[in-house]
Amino acid sequence: QLQLQESGPGLVKPSETLSLTCTVSGGSISSSSYYWGWIRQPPGKGLEWIGSIYYSGSTYYNPSLKSRVTISVDTSKNQFSLKLSSVTAADTAVYYCAGGGDEFDPWGQGTLVTVSS
Amino acid sequence: QSALTQPASVSGSPGQSITISCTGTSSDVGSYNLVSWYQQHPGKAPKLMIYEGSKRPSGVSNRFSGSKSGNTASLTISGLQAEDEADYYCCSYAGSSTFDVVFGGGTKLTVL
Known about the structure:
The complex is a heterodimer. Chain A is mainly beta. Chain A has strands at residues 3-7, 11-12, 18-25, 35-41, 48-54, 59-61, 69-74, 79-84, 93-99, 111-115. Chain A is 0% helix and 48% strand. Chain A is globular. In chain B, strands 1, 3, 4, 7, 8 and 9 form a six-stranded mixed sheet that branches. A three-stranded antiparallel sheet of chain B has the order 2-6-5, with no helix packed on it. The radius of gyration of chain B is 13 Å and the shape is globular. The A-B interface holds A 37, 39, 46-49, 52, 60, 62-64, 96, 101-110 and B 1, 3, 34, 36, 38, 45-48, 51-52, 57, 89, 91-93, 95, 98-106.
């Protein structure tokens, strides 16, 4: 049974870079869902796809965030990561990692990242 | 890339059936059989209920079904139960020229 767990700072200052890691357990990141994704949800709002990565490293980003997003994979650690640069208060959200590229299962529990000075 | 359109809320009584619509365009819902649906209870992560338009993952009740007509996908829940009260989101692949994924705005289901 695949399980995903997000980790990273819960508070980031405006203009800085948000960095999160998703650790995959119960299976190999190279052989399971093949695609891995990041989705976020601002407080009280809906879901937004941030981007997805193929286990080989090919990346796909939301066009509206593309200039600020980097997703990478570390197969040796069974992890994939998200970096979002130049954050503002509008980037405050629960960030989820999930298995999949255009359909997502399973999901991590999510981690709240607040952008504030 | 615009969000898919869902009704803000729907309601139904226990035992009844409800349908949640998800309207997109010919660039997303209408072009691909890659619509998925998610159930989200308060404070919890979303859960995949339907994928590829009408397929149910293992463990999901057969009371949940998905369909599509043109640019509109639908999620039907039959035999409503109190535990079905949650937010529901649709999602579609939208990559006509580049890989892209779009979610709907979400629908709050209330079981009366």
